[in-house]
Amino acid sequence: MTPFESIAKMLIFAGISIAILGGMLLIVGKIPGIGKLPGDIFVRKGNFTFYFPVVTSILLSILLTFIINLFFRR
Q: How is the chain split into domains, by residue range?
């Protein structure tokens, strides 16, 4: 196997992973309440908008940690 074959496989895997992640982001964006939880920081002043989903990030982190631990527990 040449070095280019391993790089090609890695690029194909990365592309598929990015496509799956993009699809998941489209689906999550349509779930009501996600990204608009109490504790998320939202500042709008004139034509400047700053949004940082603190609580949403924490909840998603806990959920993903739980799911990953279920699949990869030894």
A: 1-31, 33-74
